[in-house]
Model the fold of this input.
Amino acid sequence: MEVRCFTGGDFSQNGYVAWCEATGQCVIVDPGAAALDMVTAVEAGAGELTAVLLTHAHLDHVEGLDVIRDYTDAAVYLHPADRVMFDNLPAQAAMLGRNSPQLVPPERELEDGGIFRFGESVFKIIHTPGHSPGHVILHAEDDGLALVGDLVFAGSVGRTDLPGGDYQALFRSIRAHVLTMPGETRLFTGHGPATTVEHERTTNPFLIPTYGGELA
Ligand SMILES: [Zn+2]
Ligand SMILES: [Zn+2]
Done:
């Protein structure tokens, strides 16, 4: 699997195109402000877009959906616990002083423990509430990588002060589902640079008791 990052917008949101190098099948994850660049890359690479996967339904991770919908009929997937937030996108936009995009809702649901295949590539879907109720991460175990959305960042963690956020749940999710991955696992995050499990385990100030964090 090859993962390419596309960054855009006021929040420097990272969207991703994940490719199965063997077949050219690909998925788009979190089409935000850079959605047009993502579509252009898929076209340029003659990729076959099979699905759009959303780690969660915050505006910055979904605002490019209409651009993607113009390009493809591929189904959009979201965990059902974030559906209310998707349906409240106008309120999210209003909080940011912006107009709400008119977005067609996701057709399909992501399920905890589910396996998503495209070509010969595989993502395991892991429900990781905390930043939002229906947040998921996508783990490609065979490729030693995970797309972790806004659960954890290089040197930081997802905020929990937005509607539906839960601080305790966020740390439970990180402890149970990120820190249990092999240390060399690459983490592609929703904002900022990529990192690894081991790097965050040993240096992330939110995770290390020495620095006042809560996890060993
Ligand atoms: Zn978010
Ligand atoms: Zn975000």
In short: The first helix runs from residue 35 to 44. The radius of gyration is 16 Å.
